[in-house]
Amino acid sequence: MKANLTQLLSITIFVVVLPASYVAHASATTEAMLEEFKVNAAQPFTSEAGNAAWIRDSNGRSCTSCHADSVHAKGRHIRTGKIIEPMAPSTNAERLTDRKKINKWLLRNCKWTFRRECTAQEKGDILLWLSRQ
User: Fold this and answer.
1) What angle do CA 49, 120, 99 make, to 5 degrees?
2) Residue 16 contacts by C-beta under 8 Å, 6 or more apart in sequence?
3) DSSP assignment, residue 117?
4) Quick one: pLDDT at residue 11?
5) What distance in Å separates the CA atoms of residue 121 and residue 71, rounded to the nearest whole number?
6) CA-to-CA distance for 102 and 93, rounded, in angstroms?
7) This prediction's pTM
8) Buried b (16+ CB within 10 A) or exposed e, 35-71
9) Looking at residue 133, what DSSP letter applies?
10) What does the pLDDT look like over 77-111, one tens digit per residue?
11) Predicted local distance difference test score (pLDDT) of residue 27
């Protein structure tokens, strides 16, 4: 009985602590990037504006076109059919942990979705909203 309890406790700690370490890393990366974007932003970032940008239709395209209606679900690229893992850091511990990837995908996806680069304001709003998912 004691061995089972010890094993259960070990598994619980692993399940709770390991994802928390990824979230902490995502938060540190996200916070640093938000500070950088803030320099060129017109106003404070808001989750509401990030969500609005995420669902905004731009000539038949939006972030949800490929990333699904829920950031907790897998998406599928509408041209290539490639599966896209969930965007929410609470669902996908690898999200928002790599500055280079965040910058790459914000640039590429803004150009594809909005047919232009996103402003610092839009990047900050979207990143803030995603980081809270």
Assistant:
1) 100
2) none
3) P
4) 42
5) 21
6) 14
7) 0.79
8) eebeeebeeebeeebbbebbeeeeeebbbbbbbbeeb
9) -
10) 999 999 999 999 999 999 999 999 999 999 999 99
11) 85
Contacts 24+ apart (CB under 8 A), 59-64: 59/115, 61/112, 61/113, 61/114, 62/113, 63/109, 63/113, 63/126
CA-based nearest residue to 91, from 123, 67, 64? 67
Which two three-digit tokens encode residue 17?
Answer: 């602590």
Nearest to 103 by CA among 11, 16, 3, 29: 29
d(Cα 20, Cα 105) in Å, to the nearest integer?
A: 24
Q: What is the pLDDT of residues 4-41, one digit of tens each?
A: 544 544 444 434 443 443 344 458 999 999 999 999 99
> Tokens representing 27?
């938060």
Instruction: Kindly calculate the radius of gyration of the chain based on its CA atoms and give it in whole angstroms.
Output: 17
